[in-house]
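Changelog note: in this version the structure field was regenerated for every chain. One regenerated record is shown below for reference.
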Amino acid sequence: MTPVSDTALDSLHAQATEIFSGALAACNIESAFDRRIRFEGHTMQRLVPDGSGPDTIDLNAYKRVYVIALGKAAAPMLDVLMERMPRRKGLRGICCSKYLPKKHNWRFRYFEGGHPLPNDESFEAARATLAMLKKAKKDTLIFFLISGGGSAMFDLPLDPSISLEDTVEFHRALVASGAPINEINTLRKHFSAVKGGRLAIAAPEATKVSILLPDVPLRTLDALSSGPTSPDHSTVADVRGVLTRYNLNEKLPAAISAFFERADLPESPGNKARRSPFLPKLPWTGQAPARTFTRAEALIGEHEAFRDSVFEVLLSSHDLVENARALALKAGFFVAVDNSCDDWDYADAARYLVERFHEQRAAHERFCLISVGEVTVTMDRTPGAGGRNQQFALACALDLAKHSGELLSVLSAGSDGIDGNTRSAGAIVDPTTVERARAFGFDPEESLRTFNACPLFTGLGDTVVTGPTGQNLRDLRLLLSDRS
């Protein structure tokens, strides 16, 4: 087969990048906020009620309003809320993020939390938040603006004797375990004083509005930042199952292993008998979600603190997929979507998606397979520079190398603009990637084995770099082919 030109491959790279960046740009926090919530005078109106609380809230009924913003998108979410909410006395808040705004609002305390591992300010932000919530009464309205990344950047052990150093090692072991995010966060919820619903019960009398930007599947919204305001349905038995399944006990600091082995390990607040999601699953179209159960049914047996709670989902990975689909169709691709490998090991996900891609692309001149979600990476050593997206992309590159002369490309990138411990969002590969890497002195298999894909992709100029996006809607994978 005659090799395709560099120009043709560059064009396919550009199209993949444009679909990714365009889909992300279309997931606009401001417009999403305006589709869900409106302020008219001193009344907050919920435009898409889902059964989790009243359709309208009179702000004048409250003497104090607190705003707690945490996660990678904390700053832009806070900016949008402050632009729309009427000015009032008694407004105070806390913003904890890895990316803080240059301009600070004097009503707020700002903390630069650590990610993917907590730091001193992660603890300080949690302590400050608990102190603020302790002052909340029936006359207090609290907005919680929650996005992904908060599990690390906002944390405080339930056992005050556990140190920051041990907490960092705890998070490090979880990240390297290969466990899916829902199981990782089961441990975090039971470990932390500010997760698994514990922020809600810290202000039991207050009315609480949680505005969510999830980087988790919608069926597990209580895993978002380990569910600080959500009723938790995982149990101590689940915790011990995860510890055993991933052989974590021997990998954790002694103080944390001892904590989890306690016979009186506290349950997180929530109805343990009800294991279904605490919110209905949202449809792909972005329209009003079906009310699969009433608010009363959802909260039966819950802690009283959850009975005055409202949950709003601004955007999700479904929006990211739909935007990517629309852009790929506009570019002339036949489009298929497959999200079934969510939370799979990166190598299994790469093998599965590439196989599906080859099966379907033969029937279409221009084909695009879209997949959203996150893959897992189990690390058996200190990693080099890379992340799950670059690891996935490099695994795909080894397969594409078998298809020399064909116009194929795979892009995998995180919507937050950060992949692992790098400044890249991900990477893009094609059938020439492996050959070019070897020509530059890289060993692709060794880079994969040592979790050190970023230097290879940086050397080739094939990293996807966006900088911090202020978003966090999971990862997007695009597999493109062109025979036109």
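Spot check on this record: The chain has a mean pLDDT of 89. Residues 25 and 422 are 22 Å apart (CA to CA).
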